[in-house]
Amino acid sequence: MKLFAIANQKGGVGKTTTAVNLSACLAEKGKRVLLIDLDPQANATSAIGFENGPGNSIYPALIGYAKVEDKIAVTRYKGLSLVPGDLDLAGAEVEVARLDDHLTRLRAATRSMLTQNAFDYAFLDCPPSLGILMTNALAAADQLIIPLQCEYFALEGLSKIVHVIDQIRAVNPTLTIAGIVMTMFDGRTNLSQQVVDEVRNHFKKLVYQTIIPRSVRLGEAPSFGKPIIEYDSNGIGATAYRALTVEFLNRELGHERFADTPGVAAI
To answer: What is the radius of gyration, based on Cα positions, of the chain?
Structure first.
């Protein structure tokens, strides 16, 4: 099983939207997926309609009081499991930071789970900050997926997260960027295309060809506790995330087995 962190220290860039919908689309394709909600706000948990109770997050595992495996819950979506988030995770910024091995607590907690081969992919939905939870996710992950909003200030945030990756490699030397997902693309503005062009010019093939458009339906879906492929299955948001899933799998598997799935033309 590969562990992916989905992270960007800037909020409102489509990070949780990408974590939830990529996970759901992979499960739709028959993959066994685990989504770990690392955000105290638990937005990924509510976005798939999961009713969470107190004490069910990964927090007890981070401080050594439980196993991650005991926190895994089955969702109503076949193939998609969840470690929910809750407000207890806010305490990690204080409690975990006091520990000598504070950067590697998550890696140690997930080590046994990763060897059990119960899932094909696991995704860490990180909070929008450069705090202890995000750095733990980067220290634990095999690869990083960076959602990036098609706006000017997103470029500044990208340089910061790349700098953090370089620092984290002191404890996780094999960490690589799996890809950069351009989100909230507005075809009515020149700025969106300019940001995409600049990011592609600098990061080349790291940028996914699939671009996630700005969509009212994508914004509405979490309030109904549904991934976009359930809430608006034939809309542009669902089509985009299904196309991103195809591209993700093709990168992972190294061939075009899934290329027959309808997708979105690259912009």
So the answer is: 17
**What φ, ψ does residue 202 adopt, rounded to 5°?**
-85, -40
What tens digit of pLDDT does each residue of 171-192 get?
Answer: 999 999 999 999 999 988 888 9
Max Cα separation, the chain? Answer: 51
Tens of pLDDT, residues 159-175: 888 888 999 999 999 99
* Ramachandran angles phi, psi of 255, nearest 5°: -150, -175
Prediction pTM value = 0.92
Going by C-beta distance under 8 Å and a sequence separation of 6 or more, which residues neighbour residue 200?
207
Give the C-alpha separation, 77 to 144, whole Å.
Answer: 24
Buried b (16+ CB within 10 A) or exposed e, 107-134: bebbeebbeeeebbbbbbbbbbebbbbb
Three-state SS at 80: strand
Domains, in order of start, for the chain = 2-253 (3.40.50.300)
Predicted local distance difference test score (pLDDT) of residue 197: 92
